[in-house]
Design brief:
five-stranded antiparallel β-sheet, about 400 residues, four-stranded antiparallel β-sheet, Immunoglobulin-like
């Protein structure tokens, strides 16, 4: 047994880390034995009695190469039954002769010398006595991505149960042509994008697209137009949100995976130790600085709260003082009542009564004089009105005499 008594712990950790990585990579060979499942299975009715299957090969063959495929089929509500136990080749295609009008569901598995993979996703198809062309493509757009380059993009027509799309026909108008001419008779691909690099700068172009299946071409799509300029450039790629890593542990069901998990745990611990040795973790000074900043932040919050409370109290005191000042200025003083002399003797009472009598007579005389003046003015006004009336009547009488 090796001993590392004279070797620094830092070097020991590096050795453990390197050995762990080596063991981790050597165990990957035994983690997969059978192929992964085929993907993108499609079932396309190409005639009233024929359905073509197409799929993509497994992304991982396992420890041995794929030698064939197992194909299963069912007609609902029946269960799956084996259509082909082993195709004996790696061609990801198969044609199935069927009965017209029935619905068929398919799934495919990959086969190697180590076994059979899990089945692919299911694909459904139904044949019909009257198959038609597909619907037209939709949402055709044209974008100038360079002075002499135009990118076309469209949406594939929906799958309605008939023969699937096998390609697209593209037509173009512009430049020296006055009408639409074929640009591509068939792309022979289900891709919904195409690049036209045969355009001229500062020339307007129009495009339209047809979908093609085993029956023929669809109706035409919408038209799209664009004019490439010397400033034309590809659009900037949109920023993608980073996906959070799922760190939830999954149950380990085999010893190899368990060994890998345990080894990965030791690697992580060794990495943390190395980081701590090399000063990559937070130092005591950094922690103290963060704590000091936190306390300063708390103090600033308390000071701001106290200042706000003082401001509110000052405003309330000023308001109360203003109200008191307003109340003092609006209060009216009561007028002093005249002092009434109280008679001490009978003679004083007679004098006071005489003074009151004289004042009353003087006031009455003043009122009478005023009344006489008012009556005189009223009489004069009445006399003037009567004289005016008589004068008016006299003039009217004279006018009447003249008229006779």
């Amino acid at each position: 047994m090796l001993e590392f008594t004279n070797v620094p712990k830092f070097i020991v950790m590096l050795i453990v880390l390197a050995a762990s990585f080596a063991l981790l990579h050597t165990t990957e060979v035994f983690a997969q034995t059978v192929p992964s499942q085929p993907t993108n299975l499609q079932a396309n009715p190409v005639s009233a009695t024929k359905i073509d299957l197409i799929w993509k090969a497994p992304s991982n063959n396992g420890t041995k190469p794929v030698i064939g495929y197992k194909i299963e089929v069912k007609t609902p509500p029946a269960d799956f039954m084996v259509l082909v136990a082993n195709t004996g080749n790696t061609n990801p295609k198969y044609s199935h002769t069927v009965t017209t009008g029935k619905t068929y569901v398919y799934r495919v598995s990959a086969i190697s010398q180590d076994g059979t993979s899990a089945p692919s996703s299911e694909a459904l198809a139904k044949t019909s006595a009257t198959l038609t062309v597909t619907n037209p493509p939709g949402n055709l757009t044209a974008t100038a991505t360079g002075p002499t380059k135009i990118e076309l993009s469209w949406i594939s027509p929906p799958n309605y149960g008939g023969p699937s799309v096998t390609g697209y026909k593209i037509e173009r108008k512009g430049g020296t042509s006055s009408g639409f001419l074929p640009l591509v008779s068939s792309t022979n691909s289900t891709s919904t994008k195409y690049t036209d690099s045969t355009v001229v700068t500062n020339t307007q172009y129009y495009y339209r697209v047809y979908a093609i299946n085993a029956i023929g071409s669809s109706l035409v799509s919408n038209e799209a137009t664009v004019t490439p300029t010397p400033q034309s450039a590809p659009p900037k790629p949109a920023l993608k949100n980073q996906t959070a890593t799922n760190t939830s542990a999954k149950p380990i069901s085999d010893p190899i995976a368990a060994a890998k998990a345990e080894m990965q745990k030791k690697i992580d611990e060794a990495r943390k130790t190395i980081q701590k040795k090399s000063g990559q973790e937070d130092s005591d000074k950094a922690k103290a600085a963060r704590e000091e900043a936190r306390q300063a932040n708390e103090k600033a919050k308390r000071d701001a709260l106290a200042a706000r409370q003082k401001l509110v109290a000052d405003k309330q005191a000023a308001a109360i003082k203003e109200q008191q000042k307003s109340a003092n200025t609006t209060t009216k003083q009561k007028p002093e009542e005249p002092v009434t002399k109280k008679p001490k003797t009978l003679e004083d009472a007679r004098k006071l009564a005489e003074e009151a009598k004289q004042k009353a007579l003087a006031k009455a005389s003043l009122n009478a004089t005023k009344t006489q003046k008012d009556t005189s003015k009223q009489q004069q006004a009445m006399d003037a009105a009567k004289a005016a009336a008589w004068e008016k009547a006299r003039k009217a009488l004279e006018e009447a005499k003249k008229t006779k």
